[in-house]
Amino acid sequence: MKLLFMGPPGAGKGTQAEIICKEHSIPQISTGEILRAAVKNGTEMGKKASEAMNAGQLVPDEVVIGIVRDRIQEPDAKNGYILDGFPRTIEQADALGKMLEGMGQKLDVALNLDVPDDELVKRLLERAQKDGRADDTEPVIKNRLKTYNDQTAPLIDYYQKKGILKPIDGLGSMAEITDRIRKALA
Ligand code: AMP
């Protein structure tokens, strides 16, 4: 099963992807996590990415496309994966489509978690207090939401046109949302 989880920052993509990955024994491929690890380890890629991440902007397409290209060829991704936080631009989505075609693979479902902006800001500020993520401050949160609306939201229409979009209502308890996702994938 090859899935992608889309949704604005704070929609709960990462948490839900983790649960569904465990249930299906497939890896969760989060470009945000991979980038945060690179920043922490002070790698060349981390140095290139940190400025954009701290400003709530997107890291250049070629960097994240390279990450995903390498990661989906790892042996544990053979039977499927969830892409969490990638693609985030039409260019990334086109590159992913070509990459998969070249590997004789295709995406089964693009899941979109739908959550209104005011709820997202509330959740992200709560997460900031709990986890202390460097990009969970109010001005950066506002920027991340703007980046999402400008550059990533058009992907909803993109995958709708490809006929693989499953919209999920992202309001409710964690368990309720997991249940909606399970039903959409059944
Ligand atoms: P996330 O953990 O998915 O919210 O990602 C955290 C940050 O990493 C984002 O605000 C971006 O700066 C960067 N990032 C993660 N995934 C991507 C992507 N697919 N394209 C560009 N930047 C990304």
Characterise the protein shown here:
With 186 residues, this protein is an alpha/beta fold. The protein has one domain: Rossmann fold (3-Layer(aba) Sandwich). 58% of the residues lie in helices and 12% in strands. The protein contains nine helices and five strands; from the N terminus they run E-H-E-H-H-H-E-H-E-H-H-H-E-H. A five-stranded parallel beta sheet has the order 2-3-1-4-5, sandwiched between helices. Helix 2 (31-40) crosses helix 3 and helix 4 (61-71) packs parallel to helix 5 (90-102). The longest helix is centred in the middle third of the chain and has 15 residues, at 117-131. Bound molecules: adenosine monophosphate. Adenosine monophosphate binds at residues 9, 31-32, 35, 52-53, 56-59, 64, 85-88, 92, 135, 144.
